[in-house]
């Protein structure tokens, strides 16, 4: 008689839209260990998620907020594995109070997010979405844009994604201006970039790209006053978190033409139903897809599954946040 799998009887709830969507291996790894995987077709959130956590031993989550209310109704929950990197939407204090380990998957989607940041820069400068709409509408005429070459690109945040963006820009003949209060100037200059104050980056750059986590320190970092420091004709690219930017101030500067355009993959409230930024022709919008590549989804899933298996098996996870 064969032995039961090590984790037989354990239940893992998946509230991450893309988990195992491009590669079944992460789900199969859980199932081989005897875990029952509960993955609704549409990721549950709020009270709907709370309703299915009562007998969950683990939760794999995407960008859905997790609050004290979720932990309070999940007495068996031992681990929350972020299907990605950022954990600003998870109440870490509540997790700790309930004895729940929180993990993430650093390095899994850096390149994917960096690719999108470059794509949004080019889309804004060359007005690719507007040109696409014009061509489809039968307006076969020139749509005049701008080149990246010769521009000063401001990178806020010199972490993995910021550095990946810098590497991708190395062939575009640009100047790189960096702000990150936690990085030594020598490290930045070794990459051919210049470390400056936040105010200097904002006032000198032609394109500003955000690569910061959302923390109490960075919440509303680009408020009305700091956005106003940006030169006329500047572009703002945000593939980080919406809460870093004062969206009301951004809207006004875009409407006035002070900022020439913005490429936004994230908003303070998602989905951004009714957000007036969606109505502006000089804003390029994507639905928080920075990490959504086949390759990144596979890596995120593999790490999330391994983190779950390790914690449920009594081991330390690969990447522990709290």
Keywords:
7-stranded parallel β-sheet; globular; 5-stranded parallel β-sheet; alpha/beta; 322 residues
Tally of DSSP β-strands? 12
Helix-strand sequence:
EHEHEHEHEHHEHEHEHEHEHEEH
The neighbouring-strand order within the major sheet is 8-7-6-9-10-11-12
User: Tell me about the biggest sheet?
Assistant: 7 strands, parallel
In oligomeric terms, what are we looking at?
single chain
Terminal-residue CA separation: 40 Å
How do you describe this structure in short?
With 322 residues, this protein is α/β, with parallel strands linked by helices. It is built from twelve helices and twelve strands.
Q: Explain this structure to me?
A:
- The chain is of the alpha/beta class.
- The protein has helices spanning 25-32, 46-50, 68-72, 92-97, 110-126, 128-136, 160-169, 185-189, 198-204, 224-229, 247-256, 294-312, and strands at 11-15, 36-38, 58-61, 79-82, 101-103, 152-156, 175-179, 194-195, 207-210, 234-238, 259-264, 283-285.
- It has a 7-stranded parallel sheet, with helices on both faces. A 5-stranded parallel sheet has the order 2-1-3-4-5.
- Helix 1 runs parallel beside helix 12.
- The longest helix has 19 residues, at 294-312.
- It starts with 10 loop residues before the first strand and ends in a 10-residue tail after the last helix.
- The model has no long low-confidence stretch (mean pLDDT 96).
